Amino acid sequence: MAIFIPEDKISEIKNTVDIVEIVSETVLLKKTGRNFVGLCPFHSEKTPSFTVSPEKQIFYCFGCGTGGNAISFLMKQEGISFPEAAKRLAKRYGIDIPTKTISAEQRKQISQKESLLHLNRQALNFFRQALVETVAGKRALSYLKGRGFSDEIMDRFHLGYAPRGWDNLLRFLSKKHISTALAETAGLVIARKDKSGYYDRFRDRIIFPILDVNMNIVGFGGRVLDDSEPKYLNSPETPVYHKSRTLFGLCSARDKCRVENSVYIVEGYLDLLALHQHGIENSVATLGTALTAEHIRLLTRYTRRMVLVYDSDEAGIRSAQRCIDTFWKEHVDFQREDVFREEKADTHILVLPDGDDPDSYLLKYGPEAFVATAAQAPGIISFLIDRAIEKHGLSTEGKIQIVSDLHATLAAINDSVARSLYVKQLSERLDIDEAVVLEKIRVAALRKPQAISDRRSPSSSASAMSASESLMTSGQKSLSEVGSRIEQQIIAMMLQFPQILPQIESRDVLEHFESNILKSIGHTLLHHKFKSAAQVSELLNFIEEPEKKRLVAALALTDESWDENGCRKLINQFVETIQRRQKSKLMDDKIKAAELKNDKQLLYKLLKEKQKIAIQSAKQKITLLSNK
After folding, report:
1. Domain boundary at 514, 535, 562, which?
2. Same-domain check for residues 416 and 271
3. Domain that holds residue 51
4. Model pTM?
């Protein structure tokens, strides 16, 4: 049964776990003052910007903006859910987690998923045994070894074999007292059309178990040993297997993806095995489907640079076009997800020469040549421009057709800087005026439905984004862009010196904040009666929005010392600034009214008064600066 973790147990986990101990297992940390620093495991860097606070039990990277507590770190590092991370830490530190009463429907769903995973493990045992221990499996073994795959690779990916015959697996499962109905739900057996029984889905095929990032066997793929069709057969969608958000080999590749800061994405099981066989372990494969938005969201947990590898120009062009739809048109949908990082994926298209697939290319030229070629792979738009020029040529008619082919693609790019650079690149390649291309793009944008245009058009650029969206898309830079410096200081003060919270509340300081996200964080601190800087880790569990979590972690780790006197000065400075602003606005309103009435005597008096206020304000600012 799945574990539902009570809040008091979450608190116990956080109070027991040592974040330095957890992080130091994967990050080399060095003590610097009260904190520890190291190279960030979530992005590539040469100068340490990843900070861990043992006092507050939180981490924050000042390079990529990733932050959180021990549970957040484990979730990000291992690609697991909150309950899974909490459960793993509880087990490690000997914390007992009682089960919570759940509904009959929830119990049924949980039970079914656990039963399916157990069934898949049993099926894998059957397929593995059939490959390595039976006479029938020798043919499959011979085929795999003939393709150059070592025993180590076959073991690493748990390869198996489904024997010939209609009911070999069915009879095996029956002996294990596993119901046929469950096997049908798992996609391992299929009901006969005449309703006379069932038969095995996979027959006389090499079996590739499909594992999720948590090493659960969620499905299977099967490949024939000859040229019969269909060459590949995959498990259908089930309660535990969803091909649109599952990548073959990711559980083996994720650590290498972080180390190499890149991932190669291929289309077939054997291509993936070939890459791993040649030591290129930062590689995954899609499962009979195009790369989806969910695949990208999953991969961006581990790397930014993605190289899509194809073995023909036509396939490359079609897949590149689909990537445009995925990487740009769906970009807004990712921005509310914590697993989607602050930047878009840096995506490249590699089309191997002479009709080679990755397997044959590696055999001919070796892994070094593959990596070198991939390093030169063009980005998506550059790839499409190159292919359009190859297809249509640079005659007048060809240039017209190229612009016609690409204007909708360029219009789909919602990053105004990227779009401008690509338009410039295309106009230079075609030797035509940029304005011509821009006009085509404008027309394409106007033809889009209004709902899509509102979400994805160039007008929804960074300048029109909310503070939270800005934080999600621009990493460290956005910290200085969220609210004013003094508003950030007040929130940092509240986090690091919570004794001041009663004064913040009694003086309604937060009501004068211009930044909604900082105001919301402040109200969260007041609502949860935040009492100690050591409670920051616990506070993060009450905040669902990713951008707020990152801001809290960043501001809690600012290197400032607070005492009651310093806090009072900051509050007074903020309140006085607000009061001056209000007085100035009131004075402006009076001046405007005097102008409308043409009351020159009153207008002169008000202008002198405003000048006097401005001089006093300037003197106050000088005094404040000199006291710092």
Report:
1. 562
2. yes
3. 7-92
4. 0.60
